[in-house]
Amino acid sequence: xxxxxxxxxxxxxxxxxxxxxxxxxxxxxxxxxxxxxxxxxxxxxxxxxxxxxxxxxxxxxxxxxxxxxxxxxxxxxxxxxxxxxxxxxxxxxxxxxxxxxxxxxxxxxxxxxxxxxxxxxxxxxxxxxxxxxxxxxxxxxxxxxxxxxxxxxxxxxxxxxxxxxxxxxxxxxxxxxxxxxxxxxxxxxxxxxxxxxxxxxxxxxxxxxxxxxxxxxxxxxxxxxxxxxxxxxxxxxxxxxxxxxxxxxxxxxxxxxxxxxxxxxxxxxxxxxxxxxxxx
Length: 280
Fold this sequence. Notes:
Elements: E1 4-9, H1 12-23, E2 30-36, E3 39-40, E4 46-48, E5 50-56, H2 60-74, E6 80-85, E7 91-96, H3 101-104, H4 109-122, E8 133-136, H5 139-161, E9 165-166, H6 172-182, E10 188-193, E11 200-205, H7 215-234, E12 264-265, E13 275-276
Parallel strand pairs: 7-8
Antiparallel strand pairs: 1-5, 2-5, 3-4, 6-7, 9-11, 10-11, 12-13
Helix pairs in contact: 2-4, 5-6
């Protein structure tokens, strides 16, 4: 709880000393506000004592929790906060609510935004940045386990196919999970590519050459070329595009003109008069 007290003495120094001793604080852990200066009258006689207000400084985590409580109040959300510490000794703020999905969001996007805001408050007076975790219903642990399994699965795929595997964009914390999971995985290395906020991880197999197509892809291209050659031989050497159109066909400007929409009359008798379309 925040401690606020006012103290009076003949001098400011005496008032501050009295207040710190009473509250069990030091100047580093207290906010000191001078409310009234001492006043002296005739012959230097003090007519009014000094008055100071001493407040216990809020810790970084207390300020972060207070910010979140105010944020949820403004958003009209019923959320309770609980402060714990993880295995690394870092502060964790757990959010407790009846509807966790609205605080977590799609793949933790809302929760990450809340954590970013709380971290800014948490580090506002810090000389060096300290990581603050904001969690909800154990989501962080579940997400970490999911990412670890995904990393192992995609690393095995990269080794099998010999091709680089690219993951979806992730925040720095999630990318760190992928890196640490695969740091000792034989046959692959990991690298962060792209720019924030779309920075992602690439899993690269050993010996990967971006200029060289994998053997499997080359075999696929060879099969496609063979099928094209077979179609050309079957059709008397005529070339066809992907839609089956004859690429050897002359353009309309090179065809003989006719007043019957491209058809040519053969014979003069009505019985023998037929339309013959030009060869394709």
